[in-house]
Design goal:
By secondary structure, the protein is an alpha+beta fold. 21% of the residues lie in helices and 34% in strands.
């Protein structure tokens, strides 16, 4: 198998290696000083096979995915591994350190809206550019680990990219199903957004490579059961790709699909009171939340736009016009 190298990390056949992907220096980009880098783990198998990248920590509070990415690299035996497992468990180290949701605090941008990055851009854009060119471009498959950030309750499901290429899309869906979460969601090409300056799965359309995104865990908690489910998902996808010697476990039954997703927005300023929780079934027209003023008067009622299930809920009490309150997913077999 020889040696593989991703960024500054080299791994020999049958070896697990760790190090950093160096992006640049902060002194030219912000008031802060020091090197910009992200942690990198490479497990290079003793046998030939495909390469899989696991990304996590684009958003600071999504700890379940970070822990699962690390756990998977430690459970894989490089002597029996066919191919190469690469993990970047914390894509957004500055957000992680500051415990700030959604953004890199040095440029106030959502890193998962910057792919495939810009070598001359902001901190987050340079991080995504380096990962894209030094790692993503070199691997065959991608799993991007997400979940609910600090202010979010989140249902668990896996998203599979749809590029328009039937072969790639079938592989992505097979990966999503074998990841093993109770729901899957097919992500249509671009979802109305350009593949550049967008999420990793949108940008993967440019490379025409199979890709999935997991959504598990929420609210800045590292739930051991959800971490274990995510770790199982990574390893089971590796079994599906014949990177591990055991056959994959079958997808759960039933495993339902989120076939549509609608967002409930507030249009007023006040205290938001949710009437439903994540995983709850709702009917179109059902009141799912209300906004009250500071005297206790209800000034807005919010209704479900479709029949479905609450797949995400933002639980902050304060809300402003245009804020997302929750997302409803329509469910099908």
């Amino acid at each position: 198998m020889g040696t593989v190298q991703f960024g500054g990390v080299k791994a020999e056949s049958g070896q697990r290696a760790t190090g950093k992907l160096v992006v640049g220096e902060l002194d030219q980009l912000s008031f802060a000083r020091g090197q910009i880098d992200v942690p990198l783990i490479v497990v290079h198998g003793a046998k030939p096979g495909p390469s899989l990248l696991v990304l996590a920590g684009c958003h600071a509070g999504e700890y379940v995915g970070m822990e699962a990415a690390i756990a998977a690299t430690r459970r894989v035996d490089p002597q029996t591994l066919a191919g190469t497992l690469v993990a970047i468990p914390v894509v957004n180290p500055h957000g992680f350190a500051a415990k700030v949701p959604y953004i890199n605090p040095l440029d106030n941008l959502n890193i998962n809206r910057q792919w495939p990055g810009d070598s001359g851009g902001t901190v987050g854009q340079r991080i995504t550019y380096a990962i894209w060119h030094e790692v993503i471009a070199k691997v065959d498959y991608l799993i991007d680990m997400h979940g609910g950030d600090f202010p979010e309750d989140q249902a668990d499901y896996t998203i599979c990219i749809q590029t328009g290429d039937e072969t790639i899309d079938a592989i992505s869906e097979d990966m999503a199903r074998h990841f093993g979460l109770p729901y899957i969601r097919r992500s249509p090409p671009s979802e109305g957004r350009a593949p550049t300056g967008s999420s990793s799965r949108m940008a993967m359309q440019l490379l025409k490579k199979p890709s999935i995104t997991s959504e598990a865990g929420d609210a800045g908690r590292c739930d051991p059961q959800r971490m274990e489910a995510d770790t199982f998902g990574i390893l089971n996808v590796m079994r599906l790709l014949k990177m591990l010697p055991e056959p994959p476990a079958p997808p759960p039954s039933p495993q339902l699909a989120i076939v549509d997703r609608k967002t409930v927005f507030a249009s007023t300023h006040g205290l938001c009171r949710a009437h439903v929780a994540v995983w709850d079934a709702v009917k179109a027209g059902q009141v799912v939340a209300e906004v009250a003023n500071f005297y206790g008067d209800v000034i807005e009622t919010l209704s479900a736009p479709i029949d479905g299930m609450v797949v995400q809920r933002f639980f902050q009490g304060a809300t402003n016009p245009g804020n997302i309150v929750m997302k409803i997913g329509a469910i099908a077999d």
